[in-house]
Amino acid sequence: MLSVSALALVMTSVSASAETLRWARVADALTLDPHSQNEGPTSTLLHHIYETLVGRATDGSLTPRLATEWRISEEDPTVWVFTLREGVTFHDGSEFNAEDVVFSLNRARAESSGFKALHGAVESVSMVDDYTVHVKMTGPSPLYVQNLTNTFIMDQGWAEANDVVEPQNFAAGEENFAVRNTNGTGPYTLVSRDPEVRTVMAAFDGHWDETPAVTEIVYTPISEAATRVAALLSGEVDVVQDVPVQDIARLEQTEGVKITTGPENRNIFFAYDMVSDTLRSSDAADNPFKKPEIREAMALVLDRDAIQQVVMRGQSQPSAAPLPPFVNGWTEEMNAYGSPDVERAAQLVVEAGYPDGFSVDLNCPNDRYLNDEAICQAMVGMLGRANINANLVSQTRSLHFPLIENWETDFYLLGWGVPTFDSAYVFNFLVHTREDSYGSFNGSRYSNPEVDAKIESLATMTDLEARDATIAEIWEQVNEDRVFLNVHNQMLAYAMRDDINLDVHPENQPKMTTVTFSD
């Protein structure tokens, strides 16, 4: 954690001006390898250095980036045709062309890639000419282009020269050259990086788009909420992305500071190991989470309204639906939840065979979501009322996420955004049995062959009405099985100098190229 005085020392070499933007948020990027970690803060930083074929505007629409046009082939409905932007160069001066796209999409499909589930229906990627790429799917995939908004394009020659043809295996603790070095086509180049301390980026003179108003970015992760706000109030940073909910009202009344707010395309939920015969952290002789009575009891003690009012200070949207309302597949019926019933919950625990209750570890990040540790602390108290004794294990997200990926946690908190705005993204990563490109964040071990088959069918369904019906069937089964225990949809607030204009992005991925300055 940096104190305000330490921040001042770190930033003395950077002068504040209309061209330099000093940007602070709670967490740093986990890595600079563009295909290693499908994780919010990581992708947010990388969007300034690397680019994707298509982008996502703040209204949710797709925008052209390295691809100027995309369509399904008239000759073959299983082929997507991408026309690439000409005259684009990488930061080292190398020319961008179709070879780089073919290489990057294949790299994103690799076993160690955090993005492989997005490309599970891809059969092959081929170069037609220097500026045309064909992506052959296993069947018609009318929504595939929606999966490309966070899949970054690398320079094939640079990757080969630096021995980074395969993505970093983050969960295994692997390092490679791309973890700390970059060569993208994005609007900013990497000037310097000290992980967890500061990353400096400068506007790329050779970028194909208009020159941004912000020509230098100083990105500083500040995990401590009070320190982030103090840095803004003292003028040491210009934009704070993760505003503590308890400080929003005060900052709205502070001269020289502006707050922008909006809902995020992200839900916060608990999940648990539903499959193993025993739990590694529990004193129970078996696995309580395998029993429907225990999953129901946990749902009955969760007081979403109390978390909204006390923990989130009103800055959340309580919901039982394990997906945000932005996403195709969300319904009002899924969103509804009842009042807590602690007495019934305690009775269910006894009926399930635990007259003295049981204990288990609850793994929680403390630097990823708004008030994440406080949400977990509240849940510990709620569970205790039903004699489920949760031991809170709170740690940084760089340690927390591998627990889920490596199946080393019994019970955990996770947040999940949906950049494709479609339920298939949730299913592919969180619901499908962990195999091939599927289920990389399925920490619950949930496995249902019938559900898996339906999930796989979504990628190639052209009848969108029938596809939506299949999505509804999957959600009905998932919710019946209580795979997730959803808490709320996250709300966002950005704080900034009052001469800075920056809208809240629904994916919490603000792009500093969009910043303007008021006179």
From TrEMBL:
Q: Please provide, alphabetically and separated by semicolons, the GO molecular function terms listed in this UniProt record.
A: peptide transmembrane transporter activity
Q: Where in the cell is it found?
A: Periplasm
Give the main localization category: periplasm
Annotated GO biological process: peptide transport
SUPFAM superfamilies referenced in this protein's UniProt entry, alphabetically: Periplasmic binding protein-like II
- Limits of the Solute-binding protein family domain: 62-435
**Keyword terms, alphabetized:** Signal, Transport
The record's listing under InterPro entries reads: Peptide/Ni-bd, SBP_5, SBP_5_dom
Q: Which Pfam families match?
A: SBP_bac_5
Q: Where is the signal peptide?
A: 1-18
Q: Does the keyword Signal apply?
A: yes
Q: Which family does it belong to?
A: Belongs to the bacterial solute-binding protein 5 family.
Q: Can you say what this protein is called?
A: ABC transporter substrate-binding protein
Organism of provenance? Yoonia algicola
Native organism taxonomy: Bacteria, Pseudomonadati, Pseudomonadota, Alphaproteobacteria, Rhodobacterales
